[in-house]
Amino acid sequence: EILASSSTALSYSIASASVNPSSLLLKFVQNPSTSHYFPWCHPSSGPHSILPMQGDQLPSLVRELDPYHCPVPKIFYVQLTVGNNEFFGEGKTRQAARHNAAMKALQALQNEPIPEKSAQNCESGKEMDDDKDANKSEISLVFEIALKRNMPVSFEVIKESGPPHMKSFVTRVSVGEFSAEGEGNSKKLSKKRAATTVLQELKKLPPLPVVEKPKLFFKKRPKTIVKAGPEYGQGMNPISRLAQIQQAKKEKEPDYVLLSERGMPRRREFVMQVKVGNEVATGTGPNKKIAKKNAAEAMLLQLGYKASTSLQDQLDKNFLGTPAGWRLRKELQIKSS
């Protein structure tokens, strides 16, 4: 019918010389309800130049009447895998498709029962704890167990023997009512062996009761860091006390460095430095052990803790008569006041 009407219009324009073909075709376009035209013809072309055109290239008047180029909405498809189950979602956007797939997965998983904890899961949990403990030193594990059970810890070198090139040290560790000794060719090795021995006894203790916390249905307030009181660990060895305080704060252990060694051969004076975070303190003494204790005590006073009473009881009387001893006594009096 369209071809017939088009041929009629063309033949009519050829037969009547007084009719303009362009005005006739424009009349057909403006009155589509009463006329028919070929949708792929250029409306401004004459009868001898009928050119096929794409839908987006047609003029606006013709493009509105083009029945062959309707816009088709784009649909996205998403596949979601949860365990052995697969869920498919669709939507007009990628985000809508993901939400649709997630909604289907939630509806399916809500009907499944919650799996119970099996013995294999418990064994695997113990193996994971053992793997975590394997990455920690024996000394750190001793401090960690003592902190959980609220037990004081102290290390002390009780014996030193042998020639200068073959020294032998014996260190005693006390954890609450447990104690053990370790021997080695260095203080560090003897301390480690003592910690290994007492750690075997601590692992035999019964496990602590697990207290399940009730679920909170309100917004949880942010935790505030509670600092230990100034009297915390008073009476302990300053070195062990400082290490235990850092363990309680879950911060890095103190770092000790020997700065200098000065004085006459029989009246030596050692200067030891300890660093805790951004804080630095120094201590002096006739040997490295006392200098380290004094540095730890100075750091405790600098952090706001009270002086360790055991330090003043264990100071050597001969050391108190030296210039370094007088300086230490004066520093303790000034800081304690």
From TrEMBL:
Chain residue ranges for the region called Disordered: 110-132
Xref: PROSITE patterns: DS_RBD (PS50137)
Keywords assigned by UniProt, alphabetized: Repeat, RNA-binding
Superkingdom of origin: Eukaryota
SUPFAM superfamilies, sorted: dsRNA-binding domain-like
GO cellular component: cytoplasmic stress granule; dendrite cytoplasm; neuronal cell body; plasma membrane
PANTHER family, A to Z: DOUBLE-STRANDED RNA-BINDING PROTEIN STAUFEN HOMOLOG 2, MATERNAL EFFECT PROTEIN STAUFEN
GO biological process, alphabetically ordered: anterograde dendritic transport of messenger ribonucleoprotein complex; germ cell development; intracellular mRNA localization; protein localization to synapse
The protein's name: DRBM domain-containing protein
GO molecular function: double-stranded RNA binding; mRNA binding
Biological source species: Muntiacus reevesi (Reeves' muntjac)
Domain DRBM: 76-111, 137-204, 237-305
